[in-house]
User: Fold this.
Amino acid sequence: MTIRCKAAVLRQSGAPRPFVDSKPLSIEEIDLAPPGPNEVVIKIAGAGLCHSDLSVLNGDRPRPTPTVMGHEGSGEIVELGSAVTDVKVGDHMVFQFSASCGRCRRCLEGRPQICELAAATKGAGNLMSGESRIRDMNGERVNHHAGVSCMAEYAVADRGSVVVIDKDIPLADAALFGCAVMTGVGAVINTARILPGDTVAIIGLGGVGLNGILGARLGGAEKIIAIDLEDSKLGLARQLGATHTVNARDANAVEQVRDISNGGVDYAIDLAGTIPAMNTAYAITRYGGSVVTAGLSPSTAEFSFNQGDLVSQEKSIRGSYMGSCVPVRDIPRFISLYKQGRLPVDSLVDGHIGFDEVNAGFDKLQDVKTVRQILAPHG
Assistant:
């Protein structure tokens, strides 16, 4: 059965600020076609406003348009495709924004987050079937965003984009586990693989970066140095477990970190997604240390470094996509830590908003006035 519902549709990237006036996201009715054999229909409970979404809105990382936005979401399964037998209607779930084919080399290596087929289908605005299930009121195709498109009342997604979760946690706020938690905690625990006693710097304290602070605390880091441009974010990082803070605006910020860490950190983790943040990360890393980056810069941005120093100092630089997570393994693990009180991600939620506030919400995100807002499509 076709579902008609409300959604936040991006018709064109690169709208001028403020978004509350230019309204890059139009709130429209859409039609969702019935799910394909390996797909499910989700009633959306919550959709996080993330910097990755913002980078599409402002044109830093363009994607096919028109598209229903949103990649960090949660909800309830309400309909199953004919071949779906391992989940049921009524299950609570979190989206993971890189469904995997299970057959390509990356999947067979145990790295489903960088599935080759998923990358191609997401880039084309399709589900893994190679199709879009979304149409506007003129019958024209609308793209899926990252295979999720959760800034809507309902969504059709691949079964592989769904991770079933326990029903005893707030469903709307569970959206954070699909991106902010996976990316931030995962970059520290899975990609960097810090050890107890390590010194870790987290650069960029948005929703992902603050989860990086939580991950460093979970991993037993002795010194956790939080670096950001905003004193308010540095204060929050202290509350979440940072042992030291440095304002990146300070002319001697690099020297401060080197003093705190006795010459440089074991791991410098860029969760800001800017070239200045990467330059800082490289500069504060000790001999033999590692830079990990999980932030997404504009698609044209390039990072350079002194190759001789890289060799003679035996530094390493690693990318981290989705926190190097295996979502079906790691999302339930992170939720278990949350329920134990060891991963207090609910403290990062600034509030819940409706469709009429979503453009203004992205203004707040761009202006660094918020950590995580959750769109609640059904109120």
